[in-house]
Amino acid sequence: MEQVRPDIAYDCDVLVIGGGIVGLSTAYAITRAAPGTRVIVLEKEQGPARHQTGRNSGVIHSGIYYRPGSLKARDAAGGAAEMVKFCAEYGIAHEVTGKLIVATGRDELPRLHALVQRGRENGIPVRELGPAQIEEYEPEVRGLAAIHVGTTGICDFTAVARQLARASGARIRYGARVVRVDRRPELGVAVLTGRGEIVRARVLVNCAGLYCDEVARMTGDDPQVRIVPFRGEYYELARPELVRGLVYPVPDPAFPFLGVHLTRGVDGGVHIGPNAVPALAREGYGWGTVRPRELAGTLSWPGSWRIARRHWRYGAGELRRSVSRAAFTRAVRRLVPAVREDDLVPAPAGVRAQAVLRDGTLVDDFLIREGARTVHVLNAPSPAATASLPIGREVARRALAVLAAA
Question: In sequence order, what are the residues at sequence separation of 6 or more whose Cβ sits closer than 8 angstroms to the Cβ of residue 323?
Fold first, then answer.
């Protein structure tokens, strides 16, 4: 591969790897904060938002779940309001619907009350409901108690990503898979794509999502985490009239997953899911997709085995719901008893890029790290789509600081 040399002209000032919503928001933020900065985005797919961004339930999260003071709590709450404003400005389908978080068992009541307190600490207005009040919002939902979170909404995140791409002013190259990076701290970076193109930049920003740890290692930086892919499987509700809006169970605080929930999208359909099962490839959207090299990478990471030992009971339940529609239906019926097994129509799955530490800890906040001439976004799963505008500004701020120091 050709090396970066002092007498070679740079193709851009900042090179962003990854054309999901975080990468495109970063490009958008850079060109607004520093007009005239030359930005190129490399995306291996033939269009934007083909993975995490375009394969989620389309929920604009309120920020109620996240630890006070964390980036998730701050950026989700602020990002939700910004996302609604962005969608309104550009005519992108969206709606502020509110949602219910419902306790169906007495053991869930303490966790529900803890969520009320967390919501208040995060500045999010919540309303506590009894059984009769639940039915006023959702006639088919049954529960012992619930909270209503009014700032939750829905939107078309793929359309948001496309608009960010158009408005950023960046040059976006689709079908440009990164295969090698040559980083010289005193000079810059040169990136080789699968098509044999070389792109030279002063600074590299890694927003590669499911492959962000691999890209970090290509640059010579140690990410100190491994992306362990978890597939989230969805169904479409054949009788969408059973649900008016968004209905969630009380989540287990030990996990970053929210449990099987029902969400009415901007298209009027109701998605049910996701569960969370280990994927056998980073883009493993079904059990039939196995990539031995990627699976070996997951299995060789000590943190993967520590997760399995620590949480095998939880994982067994998720696997059972993956292979049994009846088991999945039982989870849904806890919230909406009228749902029948034949109401569940298979829908496209998603894969969560979850960063895991060597000791098996699931990274529970957004994670951004810097190296020489590099900025790496190493953990940005949900609610990153909701929070993408403030995340993009933060990554842009760091990238421009690295550029100024170069």
Answer: none
Q: Which tokens belong to 370?
A: 């810097």
181 token code pair: 């990076």
Give the C-alpha separation, 11 to 107, whole Å.
58
Whose structure tokens read 């070389």? 198
What is the pairing mode between strands 198-206 and 188-193?
antiparallel
User: Could you tell me which residues come within 8 angstroms of residue 249 by beta carbon, excluding any fewer than 6 positions away?
Assistant: 101, 102, 104, 108, 258, 259, 260, 261, 334, 335
Tokens 């389309």 sit on residue: 58
pTM of this structure: 0.94
How many Å apart are CA 113 and CA 103, to the nearest integer? 10
Confidence of residue 6 (pLDDT cuts 50, 70, 90): low
Structure tokens given for 271: 């998605």
| Mean per-residue pLDDT of the chain | 95
CB 355 within 8 A of CB 283: no
Task: Check whether 385 has a pLDDT greater than 70.
Answer: yes
- For residue 284, give every residue at least 6 positions away whose Cβ sits within 8 Å of its Cβ, in sequence order, or none: 229, 231, 290, 291, 351
- Pairing relation of β-strands 188-193 and 178-184? antiparallel
Tokens linked to 244: 């008016």
The one-letter amino acid code at 91 reads: G
Give 295's contacts (C-beta < 8 A, 6+ positions apart).
Answer: 280, 281
